[in-house]
Amino acid sequence: MSTLTNIKDLDQEALTAFLGQHGFPSFRYQQIMDWLYQKWCADFKAMSNLPKDLQELLVGHFRASSLQVENTQQAEDGTIKWLCRLADGETIETVLIPAPERSTVCISTQVGCAVRCAFCASGKQGLVRNLSRSEIVDQVLLACRCQNKKITNVVVMGMGEPMHNLENLLPALELLSAPGVFGLGARHITVSTSGVVAGIRALADCGRAWNLAISLHATSDEQRSRIIPPQYRCPIADILSACEYFRKRTNRMPTLEYALLAGINDRAEDATQLAHLARQFHAKVNLIPCNDGTARYQAPTPAHCRQFLELLLRFGTQATLRLRKGGSIQAACGQLRQQNQPPAQGSHSPS
Ligand code: SF4
Q1: Nearest-CA residue for atom 1 of ligand 1
Q2: Which of 41, 93, 120, 135 is catalytic?
Q3: Distances from the Cα of 346 to the Cαs of 117, 298, 319, in angstroms?
Q4: 68-329 falls under which CATH superfamily?
Q5: What is this structure's pTM?
Q6: What residue ranges of the chain are covered by domains with CATH 3.20.20.70?
Q7: What one-character DSSP code corresponds to residue 305?
Q8: What is the DSSP annotation of 235-264?
Q9: Which residues line ligand 1 (CB under 6 A)?
Q10: CA separation for the pair 235, 161 (Å, rounded)
Q11: Fewer CB within 10 Å: C terminus or N terminus of the chain?
Q12: Does 106 qualify as catalytic in the annotation?
């Protein structure tokens, strides 16, 4: 793929100045934006209301997309996973989860991940690099283009710890939220984190009502230490205080993501403690049976998962047991990885 700059990495001032330098009026800027963000077009030559010489100019100076789809897999439940090659040869995975009333795209923010959660394929080889603003946005536009319809929800739960790449994620989410650009309502965007306290506070300070999901996965710091290595693991008490700050700034309730791991965090006392934490966090709980096929971690049986849910509900906790989507194509929780990695052992919080 060419090493040209992605046109989405230019802001309005820079692109308008570029157009002016080449003798094109500033109204062409909005036409280009409409093609990119409203029609999800990734080919300058298909931008039919632009003059041919402007199309050629854009082709010679920019890329319209950073992603080249190398492989597409579709699961029986309709979930689609794309393996995409980036301009420097690295690969990422992006997942589309269609449903009758909505369609959700689960996007990646990094190639690899430094956190290295024990059950997760994305972190297995550590962090390779952060994705740029345009590489993040292009995943959403790819999903729209491929299904020929605007997606309704974005979950930042793919490869990478989103809070470790806020520098590019926040401008990407601003573009996706901006009314004159992509125009996705704040409540349709969810950012998930393994509990990076500084990132939760920074997200709160943006003043946007984006949703926050915390990948808790354990009910004590000791239990969490068996799942998340120490370098990037924050104490639950600190995560709680950051979430309180988030709730005060945004008026939004976080969600606690809890991957059910058989024999690790699925006992009745874990449900009791999780209900207690959910009350403290003012949070609802999403239970996700950890995906099969891992050597070290297995999902509890479906009956056991339902019992765990029942216990939470009995304590008055708002909780759901998430259906596993895309398991047959390794597009579910903890399964996104780079192409050159071995089969998944276990991305972020679940798609
Ligand atoms: S679960 Fe999320 S934070 Fe943990 S290693 Fe995977 S991608 Fe990184």
Answers
A1: 348
A2: 93
A3: 9, 9, 23
A4: Aldolase class I (3.20.20.70)
A5: 0.91
A6: 68-329
A7: H
A8: PHHHHHHHHHHHHHHH----EEEEEE-TTT
A9: 113, 115-117, 120, 122-123, 159-161, 194, 347-348
A10: 17
A11: N
A12: no
The one-digit pLDDT tens for each residue of the chain (351 residues) are 567 999 999 999 999 999 999 999 999 999 999 999 999 999 999 999 999 999 999 999 999 999 999 999 999 889 999 999 999 999 999 999 998 889 999 999 999 999 998 888 877 889 999 999 999 999 999 999 999 999 999 999 999 999 999 999 999 999 999 998 999 999 999 999 999 999 999 999 998 999 999 999 999 999 999 989 999 999 999 999 999 999 999 999 899 999 999 999 999 999 999 999 999 999 999 999 886 545 678 889 999 999 999 999 999 999 999 876 666 656 555 666 655 544 333 354 433
Ranges of CATH 1.10.150.530 domains, the chain: 5-63
Q: Return the CATH number of 5-63, one of 3.30.10.20, 3.40.980.10, 1.10.150.530, 2.60.40.420.
A: 1.10.150.530
Atom of ligand 1 at shortest range from CA of 348: 2
Query: Cα 217 from chain centroid?
Result: 18
Cα–Cα distance between 134 and 184 in angstroms, integer?
16
